[in-house]
Amino acid sequence: MSVLQGIGWAVIFAIVGGVVGIVMVLVASFILPHIIDRLTPNLDEEKEIARGNTAVAEYFGRVVAAGVIGVSIVVAAAVAAGVIAALHG
Length: 89
Fold this sequence. Notes:
Elements: H1 2-39, H2 45-50, H3 54-88
């Protein structure tokens, strides 16, 4: 019976971790552009992108994407640790 209980907890950890991970990635994707705007006060990224400045667009996109990928890696590690702990506990 403890094996089934461990599997049940692993499924619960995976589902809850997945939902929390989705929320964290969405929050990061909304907050990171504002952080970049604060870090570059003399540069209006939106105007530069609208003017066709591809260098700013690529920089902005890569920095935001790197932040979202970083949050995703941390969430994945936390979910995996929870599942492993449930299966071995």
